[in-house]
């Protein structure tokens, strides 16, 4: 048995990792301080009043007002990485034309907002990219299964490594037609770069107790969520860099030439390195700290506009 953190005054829970039960405990004094701050926060109150899923919505609204990621003029394919509880997806849906497609991906279970599709999957898995591609393949009508095998077998708490892909067999398990009969997936994917805009607000979630899963544990109960960061700056930064790199790889592989990118980073020693990589992928790059982002938060947003073409992934990460 492994105990992750300890305090006399703690909240506790646990999850299974292989054969081992891992117990975690949160320091409840910092958790209640965080809850108190949420309660008094202007943007949290506004999010509640406007029926938005979280205060994060205001950061995207502010960034989109300036950088115009979304358009009502033409249908767009939007990919929201780390979408739960779903306020960025809500904003994307409301700022695009009705025939635009918005797909949210999150490692945690979460019901998407109206008009948004979602998959529960790990962005570090190559199979996740395959599923995203199929979703945006407009010649193909399907609905995504709410809880899929991908997450169960390759989910975050198990390991980051992909097994060898077995053509489309694995994807077939994830898709079903309206009457829930498994359907054949096409062997060819029509568009090489199907996505117009990628937005990523990913941050490693605190472990939650999935052994006793109930609807109240769903991530779309935003006002009852725990804070995401650990408060240990180096740890937060390095985990964030990994997720930003994963978002950038997804952008290299799936985003259209000319497409737009938004990515949250918890700042630290590798900021410059990440900025250089983003500049290798996009012609125009900006670093933004929206006013709705708390002063004490180390979060910073990278906006990448006008994706270059062609891009050599190895050069992006080694030059
Ligand atoms: C700060 S929240 C996103 C909030 C969201 N933008 C909103 O407006 O509601 C970060 C999310 O990233 C997700 N996440 C972290 N690591 C991930 C991974 N490897 N793959 C997919 N999602 C991940 C977390 O589960 C968490 O829900």
Automatic annotation (TrEMBL):
InterPro entries: RNA_methyltr_RlmE, RNA_MeTrfase_FtsJ_dom, rRNA-MeTfrase_E, SAM-dependent_MTases_sf. Keywords: Methyltransferase, rRNA processing, S-adenosyl-L-methionine, Transferase. The keyword Isomerase does not apply. The active site is at 264 (proton acceptor). One of its GO terms (cellular component) is mitochondrion. Gene3D superfamilies: Vaccinia Virus protein VP39 (3.40.50.150). One of its GO terms (molecular function) is rRNA (uridine-2'-O-)-methyltransferase activity. Residues 53-306 form the Ribosomal RNA methyltransferase FtsJ domain. Belongs to the class I-like SAM-binding methyltransferase superfamily. RNA methyltransferase RlmE family. HAMAP family: RNA_methyltr_E. PANTHER family: RIBOSOMAL RNA METHYLTRANSFERASE, RRNA METHYLTRANSFERASE 2, MITOCHONDRIAL. This is rRNA methyltransferase 2, mitochondrial. The lineage of its organism: Eukaryota, Fungi, Dikarya, Ascomycota, Saccharomycotina.
